Amino acid sequence: MPDRRILVTSALPYANGHIHLGHLVEYIQTDIFVRFQKLCGHQAIYLCADDTHGTAIMIRAKAEGRSEQDLIADMRKAHLADFNDFQIEFDHYGSTDSTANKQLCATMWQALRKQELIVNRDVQQLFDPEANLFLADRFVQGSCPKCGAADQYGDSCEKCGATYGPAELVNPISTLSGATPEVRSANHLFVTIEKLHDFLNSWTQSSDALDSRIANYLAGHFLNDPLRDWDISRPSPYFGFEIPDAPGQYWYVWFDAPVGYLAATQEWCDAHGESLSGWWGRDQNDDTKAEIHHFIGKDITYFHTLFWPAMLEAAGLALPKKVRVHGFLTVNGQKMSKSRGTFIMARTYLEHLDPSALRYYYASKLSGGIDDIDLNLDEFITKVNSDLIGKVVNLASRTARWLQSTGLSKTYPDDGGLFDTAAKDSFEIAAAYENCDFARAMRIIMLAADRANAYVDTEQPWKLAKDGPASAEKLQQVASVALNLFRQIMVYLTPVLPEISQRVGALLGGTITKWEESQHPLVNAPVNTFKPLMRRVDPTHIESMLNVVKEQSVKTVSSHPKNQHKGSQSVQDTHSDSGESLAAEPLAAECTIDDFSKVDLRIARVISAEDVPDARKLLKLTVSLGGDATRTIFAGIKGFHEPSDLIGRLVVVVANLAPRQMKFGLSEGMIVAGSGAGNPGVFLISPDSGALPGMRLR
Predict the structure, then answer these.
(1) Which pLDDT does position 641 carry in this prediction?
(2) How confident is the model at residue 678 (pLDDT cuts 50, 70, 90)?
(3) Helical residues (DSSP H) of 296-401, grouped into ranges
(4) Would the pLDDT of 579 be above 60?
(5) So what's the pLDDT on residue 571?
(6) Percent of residues, the chain, with pLDDT higher than 90
(7) Strand pairing partners for 374?
């Protein structure tokens, strides 16, 4: 019997668009985690589904002259083809437009009704007078009412994480027609999650389900105030499930989408003779019967850490053991952009490059945290070619040929402790996989590969081969060691490189199926003909891919409704740098140079940093302004920065701020940092290299 029962989900891809490389960060991360758990012998199932409802689907289907069901069926095929070619393996892939989901939505709704969490009220809603349609959240864009960020959708801000209603947007524009929407009254249903405030505060802050930075973000941005009611219905016309006790009203997609996790489980259970309660139920001690792990992007943190747990608690269902939040993908240090030609679709990548290369590159960057990861294409070429080709694949390619006639040695030769050393690494590598710190796992594995290659370089089997029969036994021993070290490395890399692992199985006559295979060398086994396992990344293929992307992007951007409304004179990249920095926060009232000169900003070096035990947000810092000038500053950055990581770092401080007596001591300044700009975090401002403590910012 497996030691653990683990149910794993990824966020549901929307059926109105194709998969791109940004999406794949999450699905590859999740797939690696699940494959590792299965390799360890645990019962792990990976469930997902297409998110199929909403106005976007309805409008597109109408424009294309076909049914919504026909549209989502075609998109499902495209999604599954992309996932399959990237070696992402689901145990079940469903649809939110399924009978199971409809039934479970009704069950969840009744549970919310029973808990008296549903209220009814009229709301002011945006209406497109040209499209003759109430606008769903994703069909209106404007400036965030909280931070002022431009080009935000009508439900939440990607910059500051705030949630709001579409009517609250500043200067809204319909993305359907480019028209300025009208405000009209409509009746909506709401879920009052404020009644579960105490539960949500306890679960987010004490359950260990969330990264500390996410927990702190929720505490600082939502849980310190009453939780707003969540608008959970949309009036007709709308493509979705009609609410049984509210004719003419439909569940909003953010209600039936997470319920899709339950529906996918139900469908898997029906196919395998199991029950939904065996995965989502609680036992008599109120403990969960299985581990539930959600993998999501940080842009949908609110829905998965407040609203969804509230729904589960109201229904008496199991809560997630972990909500694993990842950051966004940038390409060459910048946000994926159509105008820059870096908005790369999954299929476009597959037409030019090896999916195993991207899987490895993402793994080498993913640390289990919420920081963004960057696809630097030059680094991508170097890392893949150096690590996978130069260190791993070449280890087999230059030694396997000498064993095709003899096979592996009958007993494992003396290797100076190399195999045993790498076998001991398995515990640290496994811990890294468990924590989704794949980057650490890859570093340890590549160190083992370095040691293996150093052994081959020292023993020089190519010279032994020239000696003929006199060195035949020694050659077999050296090659057997090298190939066993290679196989051991491939056991560790199997969750990341499943397709290459299968090819290794064909070479050595057996598929890698267990983590524990890393602990025992193969002996007296045949070695089949070596076939290329992977090819080097060719820079010309990268260039060719980017050229295709640029051609696609010009067509896409120019045809977007937002670039065709009245007054539009040119094609603009909605994600360009123009306005983003200013939009992160509304401009303050105008000041003069005399006003500004009163603020003395100085570069300082952190010389000590320590936790303030009784403070939820504070770290105590001592900073040097140069010479003997030091300041003690209490900074609200706890949970976002480890004290040990700050020591020696240059920061910017407000040096002439009047001292403030706090409960924990006297604070003699302020650290300059950014917050609420798209990431749930606090980001310190760092000066350029060469700056010195005491320098004034002018």
Answers:
(1) 81
(2) very low
(3) 301-302, 308-315, 346-350, 355-365, 377-383, 394-397
(4) no
(5) 30
(6) 68
(7) 330
Domains, the chain, ranges and CATH?
5-105+250-327 (3.40.50.620), 121-185 (2.170.220.10), 354-519 (1.10.730.10), 593-684 (2.40.50.140)
Q: Assign residue 254 a region: left if phi > 0, alpha if psi is -120 to 50, beta otherwise?
A: alpha
Report the C-alpha gap between 331 and 163 in whole angstroms.
Answer: 27
| pLDDT average, residue stretch 176-193 | 91
**Bridge pairing between strands 118-128 and 182-191:** antiparallel
Tokens 């524009």 belong to which residue? 173
Contact 636, 611 (CB under 8 A): no
Q: Which residues contact 74 (CB under 8 A, 6 or more apart)?
A: none
**Which of 264-268, 608-612, 673-677 is predicted least confidently?**
673-677
pLDDT confidence of residue 99: 98
- Using CA atoms, how far apart are residues 642 and 514, in angstroms rounded to an integer? 36
Helix H or strand E segment including 651: strand 650-654
Q: Provide the 8-state DSSP code for 570.
A: S
- Residue 601 DSSP SS3: strand
What CA–CA distance (Å, rounded) separates 504 from 512?
8
Between residues 660 and 580, which one has the greater pLDDT? 660
User: Radius of gyration (Cα) for the chain, nearest Å?
Assistant: 28
Closest CA to 328 of 667, 631, 25, 2: 25
Taking the CB of residue 308, how many other CB atoms lie within 10 A of it?
A: 23
Report the candidate in 335, 430, 343 with the shortest Cα–Cα distance to residue 373: 335
Q: Is the peptide bond before 244 cis (omega within 30 degrees of 0)?
A: no
| pTM of this structure | 0.78
